[in-house]
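Pasting two entries for a bug report.
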Amino acid sequence: MDSTGNRTIHRQRFVKTSVIAYMILCWCLSSSAQQKIVRCTIKGTVTADQGQVIGLRVAAHNLDQKLWYAVFTVKGEYTVPQALPGRYQIMVYEPAYDSPKLPVQLAPGETKTVDIELKQRGHEANSNAGGDEGPRQSRNSSSKIVYVNSLNEMFPAGPALALLKENCTGCHAPNGWSSMHYTKEGFLRGIERMTETGPANQDYVLALGRTVFDRSQKEMLADYLVKNFGPGMPEKRLRVDPLSLDEDVTSKAIYVSYDVPEDLEMQLDQGNRIGANT
């Protein structure tokens, strides 16, 4: 076969190969486009029966994907951009207000408006809303509220103060201590739970490592706590300046978090304790 025939055969093979490659490329691009998830948008206004709506936190809970988006209002409006499609509950998380949980269904690429109306809580409800330390007012409180201007007033000098600062105040908020009003025995049980078995008796908790206190340190710390925050003591609260929010800044932030899987195995501490009383 002459050179002209060879060139023709090679050209035909090249054309066939190019066509096949092009078809494969088109199929891949089409498949990729089909798999791409088209994001959605949730927006709306937040109003309150009392008070001003300034930088309030709006949460969007995706019930299908088990994730949360949190954004902040600006001039009474909010926007959740780039949200995954699915079923949602929309709510406002602010201690001073009660918020409804509003359902919304988002299809791929869809934008929906969800307006939220808040009701301000009463003073009693706000004062009783506590974090991990429990209610603001306890049965052992003197019911007298005393506002202090500094941490030195909140935590007076004492032999256990250094121990408290080094091991406790990093996690427990200042106002939380004055709401405990435990007896010495109650404080001792709390100290042992925090330092030996970990918060909620869970080994996997990352917020606090194991801290070994001997018996004399536990006694000293419990004596300090019952003296300053025990039964009948006034409710000490740290006076703080009102928070000034820059809505133009906070409204640009978005936080994404995830639900703990329902099938996650959690093993509680079975009593293997360290830091035995010595």
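Entry 2 (this is the one that rendered wrong in the viewer):
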Amino acid sequence: MPRKNNSEQTKQKVIEVATEIFMKKGYENTTMQDIVKGVNMSSGAIFHHYKSKKDILDGVIRSQEVWMTELFHEWLNEMKGMTARDKIINILDKHLEVSKNDQLEEMYMELNQSPQIVVSQMCSNVNHNAKYIAELLREGVIDGSITADNPDECAQVFMFLYNTWTDPVIFKCELNEIKKRMRYLQTLMRNMGADIITDENIEKNIELFRSLPI
């Protein structure tokens, strides 16, 4: 058991250090030697768990997925009795509140400057995070608050557009253009039977983006 714990601690330390270095230098400019030096362990100890820089990046993304999954279930436990539509609306608002954390804002800004990390996060949103929204869409079909015919595809389209297409850090543009995109996405989701983007959510997104040094 102690050996397993030491192994997990090593992996976690590599992920934490790598995340900081990716933020400072960018993924493309970071070398494995940078990470080895930052962790202050032998290269053999690190390569035992991670075979490459891309392998470490995958670990960073998985760590984010675990964190978001834990938050998601924590939030759901607070929403018993709500319709599925209202749960999704509340989850989107809660995620925006979490994103206002200064440290998370800095990490978000820095990591989203790297094409490799942006692509990895896009895949994570579509392949991992969207499944939780899809579960709620299916629940909504049952309780009558959602009428989407294809919950899985609907959730994937939503997560991709909401987290990528309407992000002014990834797509450099003025906030009025982002607002137009969010309005269009709001209409698109309604037409797909998932009226989950409120006017308030759009304004909160714009307020958050306005606070970023874009």
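Dev reply: Rendering is fixed now. As a check, the viewer should reflect this: The chain has a mean pLDDT of 89.
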